[in-house]
Amino acid sequence: MLIDHQVGTITLTHSHDLNTMRDASLKLAKIARALNIPVVLTSSMEDQFRGLPWPEFEQILPEAFAARIKRPGIVNAMHHDGFNKAVKAMGRKKLIVAGVTTEICVTFPVLQMLDEGYDVQVAADASASMTKTGHDLVLRRMEQHGAAITTVYQIVSQLTLDWSTPKGRELAAVFGWARAPAQITLVSSGGPGRRLRWPLPHLIFMPGTAHPGIVFGRVADQLGAIRGCGVRQDWAGRCQGPRFGRPVHDGRGADDVPDGQRPRPV
Question: Which amino acids are annotated catalytic?
């Protein structure tokens, strides 16, 4: 359910960064398209300041956009006969809901859906409200009534199950999770990043971790095997302990480690 993501309504919100919330909402639409999940899209008072739904929805979900439920101003979308019938026509008992605003356009239909026996997940990052306080309070209210409060990243992971499948790869592309290049940049708190060339294109390197300078995944495993570390090593040659365990740091930065103890910069 995508409720009232409209060009005018979004201007009322201040609980989120607008671009971040907009991006999450569009990703949710792309997830539905990729997995052939039926979508009910609704808007309120389009002919007034709230305006049309975001034009990207028409590109991503053209059929749902054309068939959207245009409410004349009814607050609880479930009280609108057209919306109510569209929800029931899907034949689904598990629903994912996002909308603007969280306090009004999302909360009341979700509470009714829960009362009618639906299993409802609310995508908090694809919804927004007038204030952060209001957004947080109504999420708590819906959760207390039985809704699961979630995020778009949790939703896609829950639905994908396996990133190696064709659908998994399609969904990964929605989020820009492509295969990492053979050349990555390591950033350390002790000095400038070093460009290193690795023959492992499947590695996804996440910079800015709590332990700067650490290489995760197959690179760290390979380094440990090459250097004879019985467990794993970070890029500076220090053993980390058990797999995925807390690394052992001695406080040295990138420029403090002898060249012989780290991969050769390109």
Answer: 105
Per the structure, the complete domain to which residue 112 belongs is given by 2-173
Q: What is the pLDDT of residues 157-200, one digit of tens each?
A: 999 888 888 888 888 888 877 554 444 444 444 444 444 444 43
Helical H segments across 36-180, by residue range? 55-60, 62-66, 81-89, 107-115, 132-144, 152-160, 166-174
Q: Are residues 123 and 237 in the same domain?
A: no
Same domain, 18 and 141: yes
Report pTM.
Answer: 0.68
Residues 129 and 247 in one domain: no
Co-location of 57 and 141 in the same domain = yes
Angle at 213 between CA 191 and CA 259, to 5 degrees: 65
Same domain, 146 and 196: no
CA distances for 266 relative to 29, 146, 154, 217, angstroms: 41, 54, 37, 21
**Which tens digit of pLDDT belongs to each residue from 126-138?**
999 999 999 999 9
